[in-house]
Amino acid sequence: MRDAAKEAEYTAILEVLKAVNFNKTKAAKILNIDRKTLYNKIKFIEVDDGI
Question: Which CATH number fits domain 2-50: 1.10.10.60, 1.10.238.10, 3.40.50.300, 3.40.250.10?
Answer without folding.
Answer: 1.10.10.60
